[in-house]
Amino acid sequence: MAKRIEAVNVSAYYGAFRAIDNISMTIEPKSVTALIGPSGCGKSTFLRSINRMHEVLPGAKVEGQLLIDGQNIYDRDIDVTAVRRTIGMVFQRPNPFPTMSIYDNVVAGLRLNGVRKKSLLDAACEKALRGANLWNEVKDRLNRPGAGLSGGQQQRLCIARAIAVEPQVVLMDEPCSALDPISTLAIEDLIAELKNEYTIVIVTHNMQQAARVSDRTGFFSIDKTGEPGRLIEYDDTAKIFTNPSVKRTEDYITGRFG
Amino acid sequence: MSVASHSARSRVTLKARRLPGWAPAGVGAAAILIAALAVYLPGAGGPVLTSVVAALLFLVGLGALSTVVEGGRAARNRVATSLVYAAFVLALAPLLSVALTLVTKGSERLNGYFLGVSMKGVSAFDNKGGAYHAIIGTLEQAGIATLITVPLGVLGAVYIVEYGRGRLAALIRFFVDVMTGIPSIVAGLFILAFWVLVVSPMFNNGRPEYSGFAAALALSVLMLPTIVRSTEEMLRLVPGALREGAYALGIPKWKTITKIVLPTAAPGIVTGVMLAVARACGETAPVILVALGNPAINFNPFSGGQSSLSLYVYEQAGTASKYAPGRAWAAALTLVVLVLSLTVAAKLLARRNKLAR
């Protein structure tokens, strides 16, 4: 199921502005990789360039190579929708489709990609909702609007929607920043379970969260505003948080940045 | 403690003197009484002058009383509140007046007979005739115009919002804005010159064909910019996060638009379409120019003159017959009820789709 991601000299631009510069890192399959760093350092930009979501914004482009299974997803003959089906994404704010029920939200990715068979959709819906730890809460009201759930439930609904298309990799862009501590805990538990099947990359501002959920941690930073973000250090989470090899990482983690 | 001593030194007063709750009503009653005495005793005017004088007296009286008892800020609040209410009443008065006049005058003749017969062979001395032919004309013309403009307008708005980049999109938006301001008579003249006099002779042995379809084309020219602009606004209100959420599931762009973006914006788009339909139903000038009008029933929108409700109202209002004004009012009421019921039906339909899916 899970795939290895190799980034080779990836740079991303917003128009003429270079947001990240020459990022190279290898993300191992079936692991959780956390990306930390100050605001504006390019963590989210890098995350969005992994499944070609960066180019959705007008004027944005990516240089360098991003290899999944040895294929560069930025090659000309790559089908973008196939890339995004392989690499799912969960966003900072829960974004369930407001016109759809809980059920329709979960199976949206399958149905809109041509799966019609009711039995297949039903099975996929239950599996994804169980996977996202939401099944017991919503199994009796699958036909109610997805937007009627609480914030934490909506975010788990979005995770269920993302894993319903059975991706190889799940990208999470600050998935807990809009949630309360209890919902955050539920999502962190979920990440620990998802790790058994998927490769997970998570962007977070919460360093305790990075330390709790991730196997490897990448620290991004910028020299000053207007400069592109760089990958400063990338290592095992335990090492980053106890004995980082770069001074800037240590300063950031211990709160002495700037 | 410094905090305690501070609060002891300068105690904050949160209480203030207030007028009793019945004060505005009392001032209002007094104002009406004084105004009535001042207007009716010298015989200066009637109820309109009385209410204007009473309103002014109320404003001055309440303001003065409030200034004396409550102070300046509260007085300004009371006066401003009264002015806001007055503006609301003034804005509502013409609407209620129109609705009331329409219903009282229109309902006199509005019955099954009126809705079921045309004006064919009805002379100035006949207390007969109806609007059947005009209702058919309005429904066919507005219906054809809607069929033409809704796909064009919605797809045009989708282009502007979802695909358009740079100069072309900006240019199209600019021309849509220009089109919004086209007077209906100009739209009618355009279709007269282009369709009736140039294109239609090709299908009619060289003779120009005035028809309901030509009227529908002219109405389309008027409806298109309204639909494009309102749809555009509604599409822009759909959060980008929804589109990104769909892209991230590997859903292609066109399916994201048709299955996620358009359904989310549907209630607003329907409202915009119904506004355009309502405007088209009320247009008279283009129908006069290119459909000419017809006292008889003509089901065929592609051949021969056709009437419409607004044209019928215009004709009857100008006809020298003591029975014509009644017919005009009844047709006007029919038109309003028709547009209203179409709007309500469309809104219900849009809402049901949203919940049931």
Automatic annotation (TrEMBL), chain A:
GO terms for molecular function: ATP binding; ATP hydrolysis activity; phosphate transmembrane transporter activity. Residues 5-247 form the ABC transporter domain. The keyword Transport applies. SMART domains: AAA (SM00382). Keywords: ATP-binding, Nucleotide-binding, Translocase, Transport. GO terms for biological process: phosphate ion transmembrane transport. PANTHER family: ABC TRANSPORTER I FAMILY MEMBER 17. This is Phosphate import ATP-binding protein PstB. It comes from Planosporangium flavigriseum.
TrEMBL record, chain B:
The keyword Cell membrane applies. GO terms for biological process: phosphate ion transmembrane transport. It comes from Planosporangium flavigriseum. It comes from the Bacteria. GO terms for cellular component: plasma membrane. PANTHER family: PHOSPHATE TRANSPORT SYSTEM PERMEASE PROTEIN PSTA. InterPro entries: MetI-like (IPR000515), MetI-like_sf (IPR035906), Phosphate_PstA (IPR005672), Phosphate_transprt_permease (IPR051408). Belongs to the binding-protein-dependent transport system permease family. CysTW subfamily. It is found in: Cell membrane. Residues 135-346 form the ABC transmembrane type-1 domain. This is Phosphate transport system permease protein PstA. Part of the binding-protein-dependent transport system for phosphate; probably responsible for the translocation of the substrate across the membrane. GO terms for molecular function: phosphate transmembrane transporter activity. The chain crosses the membrane at residues 21-42, 48-71, 83-103, 142-162, 174-198, 210-228, 260-278, 328-350. Keywords: Cell membrane, Membrane, Phosphate transport, Transmembrane, Transmembrane helix, Transport. Its main location: membrane.
